[in-house]
Amino acid sequence: xxxxxxxxxxxxxAAKAAKTLPKETLRRVVAYLRPQGGWILLSxxxxxxxxxxxxxxxxxxxxxxxxVAGPGQVDFEALGRVxxxxxxCIGLSAACQWLTGMLNNRVACQTVRNxxxxxxxxxxxxxxxxxxxxAAGDILSRMITDVDTFSDGLLMGFTQLFTxxxxxxGTLIFMLRLSPLITxxxxxxxxxxxxxxxxxxxxxxxxxxxxxxxxxxxxxxINEAAGDLKLIQAFSHEAASVAQFDEINERLRDCSLxxxxxxxxxxxxxxxxxxxxxxxxxxxxxxTVMGGGLTVGALTSFLSYANQYTKPFNEISSVLTELQNAxxxxxxxxxxxxxxxxxxxxxQPEKLEEVRGAFALEDVCFSYDPRRPLIERLxxxxxxGQRVAIVGPTGCGKTTLINLLMRFYDVDAGAITxxxxxxxRLTRADLRAQIGMVLQDTWLPAxxxxxxxxxxxxxxxxxxxxxxxxxxHAHSFIRRLPExxxxxxxxxxxxxxxxxxxxxxxxxVMLALPPVLILDEATSSxxxxxxxxIQKAFDAMMKGxxxxxxxxRLSTIQGADLILVMNAGRVVEQGTHAExxxxxxxxxxxxxxxxxx
Length: 597
Known about the structure:
By secondary structure, the protein is of the alpha/beta class. Helices cover about 65% and strands about 10% of the residues. The chain has 2 domains: about 25-335, Up-down Bundle (ABC transporter transmembrane region fold); about 360-595, Rossmann fold, CATH 3.40.50.300.
């Protein structure tokens, strides 16, 4: 019972989130279509030509029928001219239809290209707070699946909607010329189809929105399972992972069935009404022919028009369903694009000429959640060339401090300065160009070993890349790879071990040699022997550079100029290794816990 209630609560919450305004989404879609206005007008003109030629064909067919008055009474000369005209009209209409399809594809692809470009550009402007709060799979679903679905709906709208509307208007004009009375019968019955389609379409938008949101959840779960399958198997968490997937998969099945059921009602309802229209035209047309008001050829033309008139309603009903789905997907993309970006860089930023590396924090306050303060009134100073180590228990704020120094997050109060200039007065690019970072969590872009190392300095020479790899003690394992520095590594490091990936990250920073270094558990995945050799390389690299080192292995930071001991977002102790041991405080307890044997 509790499981069903939880499932119902999730479904209700998702349904409430799906209540968005399609009018606003439609307005923004139109804004993306506006630059393609010229191609759209040309497409409309070709569609008009296609419709006009298609509607002229029944007239020609009627004339051909009238050329055959009876056995032995065939006007072959007139029939030949009519058949020649029919062939020409068919050829021209086919050409117009092909060109219209080409233009519509161009408009749809260019529009989707612009939307995806803007969404990806905005993704890089979003603060880490948004990325931390949303699953990568959900963002991936918005950027790829939802945009592709929108593209399909947009293309169908261009291909069928315009042509269908023009066909309806054109057939009405031609039918009025043939018989206003029978046309009146058609017009009276038509609104039934329109009201039925609109009634259903108004109700399926929210269903498609809910479907796309649930699909995003499912993509996030699949992405998480695929990325962390080793951990899932290591902890025998397969059953729980499958259960989580099944729960979301079940919700996706339910909302997909509802959306599909209601959307599939549109076509049968409109077809039923259209059949009634055709039957009424046949009945009244037959009576009119018997009364001498129409010829048999004219009735043939009128029945053809009645069929052409009702056919677009079936197509338009399908288009409306696809457009509802497309608008729901576009709404999710716009929702991400509406997220407020990170605070912009100053309009007139200050420039750093020669960076000495003097960092200072003055009464800094910060929290990820306003209800749970983390760092309160933190003040500290790192002198140029000083090596600052940061230690403390898990969750004390070490990595948060690094995030603030890099401006991945902005402080809530106080200020952080570099060489006396507040970092918020600098552009993020200028600030981060002065800082080299090696994190515990490695990230390697897909590419060759050479491209991965030169990521920090694309213009670096071959000799500089090899020297950086030697300094990071990565050169030996790189030489053993099948193609050495030209070996291509796949996403997330491919087949390289975690330690090898970390060595490449270290080589990447050693190639850049920035004025400030941040090492956050930079050697956590490396064996002790290699760590000792890399530590010597780090020591040489840190000379004359301000360095912040986050470490749990206290043996690696005993030579630091200043050790900050953090707890609950505050610096509880600071000093050198010897000074802190002599105090017998928090650092001394940490040290004794590691080296008590």
